[in-house]
TrEMBL record:
Matches recorded under SMART domains: EXOIII (SM00479)
Protein EC: 2.7.7.7
Pfam families per UniProt: RNase_T
A biological-process GO annotation: DNA replication
Name of protein: DNA polymerase-3 subunit epsilon
GO molecular function: 3'-5' exonuclease activity; DNA binding; DNA-directed DNA polymerase activity
Keyword Cell membrane attached: no
Record's keyword annotation contains Lipoprotein: no
CDD domains with a match to the protein in the record: DEDDh (cd06127)
Amino acid sequence: MTSWGLESLPGHRVSARQGYVVVDVETTGFSPARGDRICEIALVSLDTGGEIVDEWHSLINPLRDTGPAHVHGITKQMVADAPVIDEVLDEVWSRIAGRVLVAHNASFDLRFLRDLPGSQWLTETLCTQKLAPEFIPHGKWTLSACCERAGIPLSDAHHALVDARAAAELLRFYLRRGVSWAEKLESAATRAPEWRPLGLPQRRALQR
């Protein structure tokens, strides 16, 4: 059994959830190694053809100040009654298991996800920022700049769900150009461990 809600379950195939899941996190800073923490997380799920099938998001109590509120708009008062990250990990991992994890500037989001219990199984990932030069005219590669050149509306940037939706639309933009990440999809579906709750205390999401 792996830690925190992930284990193999005979007769229940993770490939039933095959597809992509786009993640975005808002954080108190840049480095979990220096004590920075997630203060909002969003996940947008897509099927293998790029159709959005589900989304989920929550504010997270980082058990410290929320950092640059002038950037992400999250204050200490907003997260006072929010779950801590451990209290939503069952939800987070269940939505990621079996899917290719996608993010814009993925190294940033993965830095925080891989700091969490149970993250050692995260394998197949895509970065919409690194992929952008293959699909849109050259320029700045921020999420807002990429969306503008791809004709994707984006307002209220640095809200986790808004940014996750925008990155999901970027992924769909790429997929409509005939690309396929079949090997990554299959690998994520077959290599990711199965998930089920371990009965640890969990709480409902709290949204802005």
